[in-house]
Amino acid sequence: GRRSALRIPEDKPVLFLVGKLDRLCNPQATEKQYMKMTNNDKTLVLLQDRGHLLVETSSIQPQVIDLIDYWLDAHVE
């Protein structure tokens, strides 16, 4: 939830994947939550043609896999 997101330590990198067509979690509220976070390394990716289920599905879109893969490569030592 929103409160638990604010408890993520500031030195931990955070990736937000947001589907602009999400009807379960309001994309604008998620963007506001992202802006409130004070993490030194945070990334927000807005997926224009996606809804709520981005990774919780057996058919993850290649674009989403590529985004996660790229982000992990950049953040894993």
Note the gap between the termini. Answer: 28 Å
**In order across it, which strands form the biggest sheet?**
1-2
Low-confidence stretches: none
Q: Write down how many β-strands occur, each being a DSSP E stretch of 2 or more residues.
A: 2
Topology as H/E string?
HEHEH
Number of separate helices: 3
Largest sheet: 2 strands, parallel
Shape: globular
Helix content: 25-40%
Provide the gyration radius in Å. 13 Å
Strand content: 15-25%
Overall pLDDT metric: 88
The helix-and-strand class reads: alpha+beta
Characterise this structure.
The protein is an alpha+beta fold and 77 residues long. 38% of the residues lie in helices and 16% in strands. It is built from three helices and two strands. A two-stranded parallel ribbon has the order 1-2. Helix 2 links the parallel strand 1 and strand 2. The termini are far apart.
